[in-house]
Specification:
It is built from five helices and no strands. The chain is mainly α.
Length: 124
Amino acid sequence: MNEFKSIATELLSLIETWEPKLMALPQQAIEERRNAQHRTIKQIVGHMVDSASNNIHRIVHLHYQTSPLIFPDYAHFGNNDRWIAIQKYQEEDWQNLVQLWKYINIHIAHVICNIDPEKLDNIW
């Protein structure tokens, strides 16, 4: 699965590049700068943690659940905004949040490298 290894390697490279950039951001920027969805940088990083977590669960479930897999819809109907609000990413310690982002993505790279090729036709 060279393609998966390549994806995992690229992800690890992005983590290595972006961790110090995220850690160097000034407090005011991470807590006040907002995107078009009115999310701060802290909330965006929290959302990326949630997305990685949901994707890990999808990959794992696709290995043993009946296909097509019915998985809760995280990305629509305001669910991702609910997740951000419930977890209060705006109040999270920045260093802890960046480390959580880093390590969940290192783990997803590991999971990607270990996908069973026989399960690639499974769908959700």
